[in-house]
Amino acid sequence: MKILVCISNVPDTTTKIKFNEGDASIDSTGIQWVINPWDELSLTRALELKDDPSNGIKSVTVAHVGPATSEPTIRKALAIGADEAIRINSESSDAYYVAAQLAEVIKKEQFDIIFCGIESSDYNGSLVGGMIAEFLNIPSVSAVSGITIDDDNPIITREIDGGKEVISISAPFVAIVQKGIAKEPRIAAMRGIMMARTKPLKLSEPLPFEPLTEITVLEKPPMRAACKFIDAENPGQLIDLLQNEAKII
Amino acid sequence: MSVLVYTENWDGKFKKLTFELVSYASGVAKMINTSVTALSIGKIDDSELKKLGNYGAEKIINVDNELLVTLDSQAYSYVISDIALKENASVIIISNNNTGKAIAPRLSVRLKAGVGSGVNKLPLKTSPFTVYKKTYSGNAYAHVVIKSDIKILTLAQNSFVLNETANNSSIENMNVTIDSSLVKTEIKDVQKQTGKILLTDAEIVVSGGRGMKSPDNWGPIEELAGFLGAATACSRPVADEGWRPIDEHTGQTGKIIAPNLYIAVGISGAIQHLAGISGSKCIVAINTDKDAPIFEAAEYGIVGDAFKVLPKLIEAVREVKS
User: Fold this and answer.
1) Given B143, B190, B296, which is nearest A215 (Cβ)?
2) Residues B123, B31 contacting (CB under 8 angstroms)
3) Which pTM value belongs to this model?
4) B contacts of A216 (beta carbons < 8 Å)
5) Among A82, A116, A188, A198, which residue's Cβ finds the most Cβ atoms within 10 Å?
6) A234 inside domain
7) Does any domain span residue A153?
8) Total domains, chain A
9) Which residues contact A195 (CB under 8 A, 6 or more apart)?
10) Does A159 touch chain B (CB under 8 A)?
11) Which residues in chain A touch residue B272, judged by CB atoms under 8 angstroms apart?
12) pLDDT of chain A along its 249 residues, tens only?
């Protein structure tokens, strides 16, 4: 089986986002770009599956839609352990556009398991994974927190309200992954970083799909009122405020 | 033309979030001068379906088919998109919960309909159709123009006020034919806790962080939650250390919640934690460090030792609740 992990290139989650008020772009000075956290966990789990020969995983590929400036992030995925990478040479205009491009690549290369993070930490859309599956007319499972392969049969754990479901599914399929899929993201070792330089990074040109949405303005979140402090000796006052001022208990 | 709202049912019952969705759909329908059709899938009584009318649904469609007993996103998208076309829906509204996240993107491709995901208020305008949504995990908000003829909006939970409007609604039981080969997933096992308030549904959440020092110190957090009818949550380090179950982890990579009241005890308020709670209506912080970033997000704060503050707080809650 061949695994594809779709990766997004996002500002490090500790970055304070700055942008020009009323503009639709962010100020990228000083931003450290990283693999989207859920994609990094997916990659980790994909590599864990490949580490066990009984799972029969032949290769782990990463794919990314983005300009040449995102190559350091792709190389990082190779350094962590992916065998090869594909970059679709285009700005990622919206989820529909990105999913359409990735679906075209998947059609050509015939992957069996496609991992996508539940969302990207920049646009928070939660869309690309499900869209890819619909473009390819294959099943998708969302909120995946575990995956194993039992005698060539993939078994998925999906989070539901107040619990979990265990699902059997046949490849090809898209697993849309959330926290829990892997304990901690795998870190690139020095050897991996050296090897990443020579691993194949294929370039693919985008097809002409029209995005369906467009961000026209980015703005600051609404301001919150300043915190009202209550004496630690008298927390009863807090209850009074919650009851009579905020009126929420 | 119509606004189609997908109203998920839980074992034959609707939740508050269902009525939020229908209230929201009514608001959108008013903006574009049309009516609301609600779509429910699965076994449910007419008396429960009728409740949707109280929030503005004019037509209520119920589809029950044995192939739709469990959520297979492919089969569900097939049915919902089919009905959306039959009902000539120009806007489709779904929750931004796990179910919505499984279905909305597939519907988008089937109908070539752009998605505004995780919206928390009515569209800013209808021409061009522009929605307002959280991006960068709450560090920015975006105006998103949806350019397609059909628009899909996924609504963040607990973000829209219920709006009761008496309405004459009709119920239609619709039969759909589904090819069984469409269902490619099979549920092998279900593990479900019952009787516990779900973190994503809770109106009040009491949450503990590293400041609680040890997994053995959670007694007061649970006690306070018990008196307030609240769910319990925790910060990432606490879940990662295994002090609390992983499904309590609230934050950017864990659960994203928007309760009416979030009480953070011993949580410093890292940017990733705030990303998971910034939608809360009111945040209360209890922390020993007066410079902790959680106080910048909080409406009310107590600088003090949680182990001294909590017992007094529990006592005060007990008094007002009794």
Assistant:
1) B143
2) yes
3) 0.95
4) 130, 143-145
5) A116
6) no
7) yes
8) 1
9) A78, A79
10) yes
11) 13-14
12) 999 999 999 999 888 888 776 678 888 888 999 999 999 999 999 999 999 999 999 999 999 999 999 999 999 999 999 999 999 999 999 999 999 999 999 999 999 999 999 999 999 999 999 999 999 999 999 999 999 999 999 999 999 988 899 999 999 999 999 988 998 999 999 999 999 999 999 999 999 999 999 999 998 888 888 999 999 999 999 999 999 999 998
